[in-house]
């Protein structure tokens, strides 16, 4: 029990350490350079396809988290997020999603889609009323 309490107090003491932002900002570019080197292996035309570089991105994310934790900083934090956003702008700025233009279906289909539930509802109400009046037979 005493050992567990010591571990608990040690964890509480680690959380109270101040974040060394300058150390974190000094180390995060190493993660960026490593990610950049790995991304050179991927054809730039495939940068918008996450399946092509998911392992590299996972390594990059783990690196930024490790460096933030080594500097006694929470992750994610505004500074780390700013750095990650910069990497996203560098590699994925051309990866915009195409907006889908929604259109109403033709009138014939729309009327059918509206009338089917209305007719089913009317039929169910009629069936329930008819069955409730015929309860003596059931």
Structure characterization notes:
This is Receptor activity-modifying protein 3. The protein is mostly helical. The chain has two domains: 73 residues, Receptor activity modifying family (DNA polymerase, domain 1, Orthogonal Bundle); 33 residues. Helix content is 67%, strand content 0%.
Features:
cell membrane; elongated; 67% helix; receptor; 138 residues; coreceptor activity; mainly alpha; single chain; transmembrane; DNA polymerase, domain 1
What's the number of domains? 2
Total E-strand runs: 0
Assign the CATH superfamily of the largest domain: Receptor activity modifying family
Q: Please, what is the average pLDDT?
A: 85
Instruction: Give the overall silhouette.
Output: elongated
The assigned CATH architecture of the largest domain is Orthogonal Bundle
Which range best describes the helical content: under 10%, 10-25%, 25-40%, 40-55%, 55-70% or over 70%? Answer: 55-70%
Unreliable stretches covering 5 or more consecutive residues: 1-7, 9-14
Following the backbone from N to C, one meets helices and strands in this order, namely: HHHHH
Distance between the termini: 70 Å
CATH class of the largest domain: Mainly Alpha
Strand content: under 5%
The helix-and-strand class reads mainly alpha
CATH topology of the largest domain: DNA polymerase, domain 1
- The whole-angstrom Rg is 30 Å
Continuous helix count: 5
How would you sum up the major sheet? Answer: none
């Amino acid at each position: 029990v005493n050992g567990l309490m010591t571990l608990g107090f040690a964890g509480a003491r680690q959380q109270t350490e101040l974040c060394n932002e300058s150390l974190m900002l000094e180390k995060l570019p190493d993660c960026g350079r490593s990610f950049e080197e790995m991304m050179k292996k991927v054809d730039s035309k495939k940068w918008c396809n996450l399946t092509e570089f998911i392992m590299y991105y996972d390594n990059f994310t783990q690196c930024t988290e490790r460096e933030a934790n080594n500097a006694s900083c929470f992750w994610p934090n505004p500074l780390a997020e700013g750095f990650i956003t910069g990497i996203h702008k560098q590699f994925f700025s051309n990866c915009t999603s195409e907006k889908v233009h929604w259109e109403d279906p033709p009138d014939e289909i729309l009327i059918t889609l509206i009338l089917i539930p209305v007719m089913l509802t009317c039929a169910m109400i009629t069936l329930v009323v008819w069955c409730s009046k015929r309860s003596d037979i059931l």
